[in-house]
Design brief:
3 helices; two-stranded antiparallel sheet; alpha+beta
Length: 138
Amino acid sequence: MSVLEAHALTRVVKPFVATSTVNTLAFVPVVDKAAIDAWNQIIDRLIEWGRNPANLADDDAEPPTASAIATAARVASMFRDTQALAPTLVAPNGEGGLSFELRHSNGTDLLVIHADSTVEMICLQNHRVTDRFHIKMA
């Protein structure tokens, strides 16, 4: 499976991570079943979107491309495997891509998968962009 490059992984996973603690007595990772279940539901939704993209078609909006959905599923699987906090919203962006949005106390983080499968992270604070960068998929 593809992974995000190291710098981007650190930047992206930090705000999304629900639990990165380890049981120090047994050195057994803590399993966050709720996070895993939430990501599995997102992956199932992405699979459904891939099977029936016409269901997302709108007069003025282009549904996500097959490659954008596949990339989103790969990213979602990576986050699920790290037990990252699931996004607040997953939605098509109307331009052939889709976005994962996580609202938190410090603002909002958007992980945007564009129609051409490029991935971009946009961090907002008080509705202003504080950071924006592209993420290479390996």
